[in-house]
Amino acid sequence: MLEQKLSNLKQNIKSLKKVVVAFSGGVDSTFLLKVCIDELGTDNVLAVTARSQAITEREFEESQSLANFLNARQIIIELNELDDPYISDNPPERCYFCKKQIFNKFIAIAKENGYNFVLEGANFSDKDDFRPGMRAVRELGVLSPLKDACLTKDEIRELSKEMGLPTWNKPSYACLFSRFPYGEKITSEKLKRVSQAEDILRQNGFYQFRVRSHGDLARIEVLPQEIDKFFDETFRNEITQKFKNIGFTYITLDLSGYRTGSMNEQLKEEEMASWKD
């Protein structure tokens, strides 16, 4: 079954001849870039990475290292998404405007350099999530070959491991804009504070986590099996002080633990349904 999905993916990519891959250095886009290079050759694949306000500098640098690891040709574009109030004002459909801005730039690069298609790394596990950005992907004609091949996140991790990709067990990452409740204005200062807070958790050994920012309150999400680390008073006080040092007034632990898209829990079903892929 999995072998057939991979075969279908390879055949689909081979038919595209010459492609631009939207490359973030995450699990999905790294796997997609690898398959494209294997099937089409380095000269027919261009990795395009956005140096965005929505990703940390660490993530950006990792994307460059991974492109080198794959011997991929990479172009970097600079983005200033917060200049657009449709993004910085953080409405529920923010992701639509953000993806539209990014992929319009990627499409322009593809045309300028003679590439036939732009590919992105959404997978089959994403299909039921609230992802307004996927509407922009469809409208612009950007292709999602992993999703079309019905490859799930777990399957992509499994295949990545078999291919020797270092990203096979990389934690899932989401843009920093997703750390704020809809309607709260996003600023570069707030993004920096969230990035610093998540670095603190990373340095303390947490694997998969988010720091959600509600004004001056930080809501920490960690895996359920890691919640008990906060039962240690010394450790808890240390994390609290570090978070206060970077500007948070209140520091809380979400007892539901880490989950993707927790900010979407404030939305009504009809709001989300209207943007379903």
Features of this protein?
single chain; 277 residues; alpha/beta; Rossmann fold; Histidine-containing Protein, Chain: A; three-stranded mixed β-sheet; 11 helices; 7 strands
What's the layout of helices and strands?
Elements: H1 2-16, E1 19-22, H2 27-40, E2 45-51, H3 57-69, E3 73-78, H4 85-88, H5 94-112, E4 117-119, H6 133-140, H7 145-148, H8 153-162, H9 188-203, E5 209-214, E6 217-222, H10 233-245, E7 250-253, H11 269-273
Parallel strand pairs: 1-2, 1-4, 2-3, 6-7
Antiparallel strand pairs: 5-6
Commentary on this structure:
- The protein is α/β, with parallel strands linked by helices and 277 residues long.
- It is built from eleven helices and seven strands.
- The strands form two sheets. Strands 3-2-1-4 form a four-stranded parallel sheet, sandwiched between helices. A three-stranded mixed sheet has the order 5-6-7, with helices on one face.
- Strand 1, helix 2 and strand 2 form a beta-alpha-beta unit.
- The longest helix is centred in the middle third of the chain and has 19 residues.
Work out the helicity level. Answer: 40-55%
Question: Could you give the distance between the termini?
Answer: 25 Å
Average pLDDT number: 93
Principal-axes geometry comes out as globular
Task: Count all strands and give the number.
Answer: 7
Order of helix and strand elements from N to C terminus: HEHEHEHHEHHHHEEHEH
CATH structural class of the largest domain: Alpha Beta
Tally of separate helices: 11
Integer-rounded radius of gyration: 19 Å
Query: Strands across the major sheet, in which order?
Result: 3-2-1-4
Q: Estimate what percentage of residues fall within beta strands.
A: 5-15%
User: If classified by CATH, what would the architecture of the largest domain be?
Assistant: 3-Layer(aba) Sandwich
Would you give the CATH topology of the largest domain?
Rossmann fold
Spans of at least 5 consecutive residues with low confidence: none
CATH superfamily of the largest domain: HUPs
Q: Please identify the structural class as seen in this structure.
A: alpha/beta
Q: What is the count of structural domains? A: 2
Largest sheet: 4 strands, parallel
